[in-house]
Design brief:
Distance between the termini: 24 Å
Helix content: 40-55%
CATH superfamily of the largest domain: Glycogen Phosphorylase B
Largest sheet: 6 strands, parallel
Shape: globular
Oligomer: single chain
CATH class of the largest domain: Alpha Beta
Strand content: 15-25%
Number of domains: 2
């Protein structure tokens, strides 16, 4: 019997360190491969230079270069895979409409226009485009992009599950507490003019100020100080708890604190393409989710969990959200709908399945 050929190498080029979200996604997606060999290369302070990475690719000639997002170096790699390194296939993994998202948050400065140029050319030069949401697949097809593979944001089900957080919940929020929570990156300042993520939680908390409902934010980012200032301004110090950045080893315990988990996305193309990392996380922990009817949530969640949202900043959304929260607080039996969450996570977002889907997609479509 002839020996099996050596596994083909897939080089993940990650323009960040080992703890970044792109790095975690790459490692999870390659975790169950049987036929391909992943190699992870990180461009960071103290690591290999872009020149070193370039020379290594030219010397070693991996079967596939797998990159995230858009910049000048990624564009150069994509060009070379088409024009010089004809035996190397190029894959780009994107979770956003980068140009549109940048414009939404920051307007149209020069660097936004540059991102638009990178995005346009990298998508067309790629042998395979990996996206996170089914709406994104349809969007790119309308733009003439054909070789697309849907691999949504995922979750490691061995790491995240529902736990009993009773002791911690009582310590943080008091006995018999009902908690509405959110995990997210906190952006401020931005073009929205509100703390994003977190404004929905703050506004709902203000509307429900006199109700026995607590709110929790697990997050980090440049908007932390503004989020805390808003808590003070609204007089919510006893009602809203800012937990700070969630330690990875505490994910299950912290998310299980939430009786209701929030996942608000604006109703805009830039957000319809998204899964968001929160959605699989909440489902894996069997949380009841209240989310705007946007993005991958629209396709996978029960309609009872979806809340209408209009435009970028919907001033009428917090009252609708607050009403939903109040109804669930008053009728706890309805929260049992959350018990199907983990089954949805297993069906759509398990990294074990997504890893196999990606390997098969690469093998059959570009190798």
């Amino acid at each position: 019997m002839m020996p099996d050929p050596a596994k083909k190498e897939i080089w993940f080029i990650i323009m960040d360190d080992e703890n970044s979200s792109d790095a975690q996604r790459a490692k999870n997606l390659a975790g169950k491969w049987q036929q391909l060999k992943p190699v992870f290369i990180f461009w960071r302070l103290g690591g290999p230079s872009l020149r070193d990475i370039w020379l290594s690719i030219r010397e070693e000639k991996p079967a596939v270069i797998y990159c995230f997002n858009y910049d000048h170096f990624i564009l150069l790699l994509a060009l070379c895979c088409r024009l010089r390194w004809r035996n190397i296939r190029f894959v780009v993994d994107v979770g956003d409409l980068a140009y549109r998202l940048k414009r939404v948050f920051a307007g149209a400065p020069a660097d936004t226009l540059l991102i638009g140029i990178y995005e346009r050319f990298i998508l067309r030069l790629s042998h395979l485009v990996v996206v996170r949401g089914r709406w994104h697949v349809d969007y790119l097809k309308r733009k003439g992009i054909r070789n697309i593979l849907l691999i949504p944001d995922g979750v490691d089900l061995s790491e995240v599950q529902e736990t009993d957080p009773s002791d911690l919940k009582e310590k943080l929020f008091g006995p018999n507490s009902f908690v509405v929570g959110l995990v997210g990156y906190i952006s401020w300042p931005n073009k929205f003019g509100v703390v994003w993520y977190g404004w929905d939680l703050l506004e709902a908390a203000r509307l429900l100020k006199d109700m026995p409902i607590k709110f929790a934010m697990a997050g980090f980012g440049p908007g932390e100080a503004e989020f805390s200032r808003k808590i003070e301004e609204y007089g919510l110090k006893e009602k809203v708890i800012f937990l700070g950045r969630m330690p990875r080893e505490k994910t299950s315990e912290w998310v299980s604190l939430f009786d209701i988990a929030l996942n608000t996305q604006p109703n805009d193309d830039a957000f319809w393409v998204r899964t968001t990392g929160k959605l699989p996380l909440y489902l894996a922990a069997n949380r009841y989710i209240l989310t705007s009817d946007v993005g991958e949530a629209h396709y996978v969640l029960p309609k009872e969990m979806l809340v209408p949202y209009r435009g970028l900043v919907d001033a009428d959304y917090p009252p609708r959200l607050a009403q939903k929260i109040l109804e669930l607080h008053n009728d706890r039996q309805r929260l049992l709908l959350r018990d199907g969450g983990r089954r949805l996570a297993e069906k759509y977002f398990s990294y074990e399945k997504l890893s196999q889907t990606l390997e098969e997609g690469i093998m059959t479509s570009i190798l």
